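Handout, section 4.2: multi-component inputs.
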Amino acid sequence: MSLLEKRYRHVLRLLPASYRAERQEEMVNTFLEGAGDLTDADNPRPRWSEILSVAALSVRARLGGAGTGPRSFAWGQAVRLVALLGLAFHAMMSWMVFWRFLARYGLFGPSAAPQPALPAPESADRLWDIAQGFTALLWVAAFAALTRGCPRAAKPLALLAVAAASSDLLKLWSLDTRTAVTVMTLNGVLYAVPVLALFAGFHRDAPAIRRPPRVAVLPVAAGVLLSGLLTLAGTWSQQPPISLATWSWIWPWLDLPGLASLALLLAGAASIGVHLLVPARRSPVPAVALAILAVPVMLGRLVRLELGVADPVSRVMTAVGIAQIAALLLCALTLAVLGIRTMPPAPSPGAGPSSC
Amino acid sequence: MTEPAFLVLTALADQPRHGYGIVQEVERLSGGRTLLKIGSLYGVLDRLTGDELVALDREEVWQGRLRRYYRLTESGARALEKEAARLAENAEHARGRLRARYAEGTA
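Output:
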């Protein structure tokens, strides 16, 4: 076996075993025929473009679209659901950011929490502040594009949304490095998983699903509702007599990882309930998707945990945070077990890609 | 239908071909513009065989290695004909508009 063949076979190990069993020999032959008369003395290597094309094929084979094997399709659907739910959550949260932006400029509703002063009118800072306020809508646009069957538009919009959300970090870095690192890690874990799922799951073989327009605006409706509830909660929390002891149990559920934990725990409980009570509706897709989403949410909460605090209020908030992580871990493990158990069996190595 | 899929179907229209044969023919048909990587080729072949537009014709051993030949199916030929007609119609519209543009002297 030549050095090039050995190296190309190594690259093909990116592909699922069942796919390799069917295609490997044929692919090696096709590749070597195109490689010409290279000898080991030339120290030949597969080109990066070839390696990337095999990596992309591997993603499509593992996260299959319609027409692929049932297991590959189920994994694909789970990853696509991760992207959909993740984008929906960020669209809802960014709508709340947009709401606060409008409230700051006195355009819409009162603001519960004290807001930073507006930059001077007609200044560059003012323009930047307004532009940043509108970038919150990028997540809403990305989710809408995805639900309306345009994942190719959703991908750059999601990347822009991540870039826009990170644009303040440089300024924060110069002021408070510790907080900047915390925010950067939190953004990283919460944004990376749905965006990666969007790019991996919605490949060119993924089924194109165009959902009704009302689905596209669901996060906006949820964001409006949640904004209202949080405004009310903010007002109540400031009404005398202020009971810090009570609110210290509630506040950890109202920040970004807290709301994500709450949403995941509710959705996870519903998924487990359906699995146990309605066997006919058992599906690995929601269980696996929620288990995957629990990982960044747990990490997000972990990043925000303040250990070693002395005052009773902070200690209660830390305890609630730890309880959230424990509950998420238990929920994720249960969902993962249920999801893996209901996953269609892997094709036997001789079966090959279902499309052949 | 994507351009690579269209070109692969076209490459198989006259005779069954194996993997590298398809790569070469697609390159020739596209005037060198489309150079199919192996991962892309097999992605396209998976999709086309899944849609039953292409089928396995035969297997041969060449210099000790496996060669699989693929052929265009009847539904593949119909799909290719339909797509070719659609593209030709689009091209004809473009040519007609350009002729009109030049005739009016607005070039």
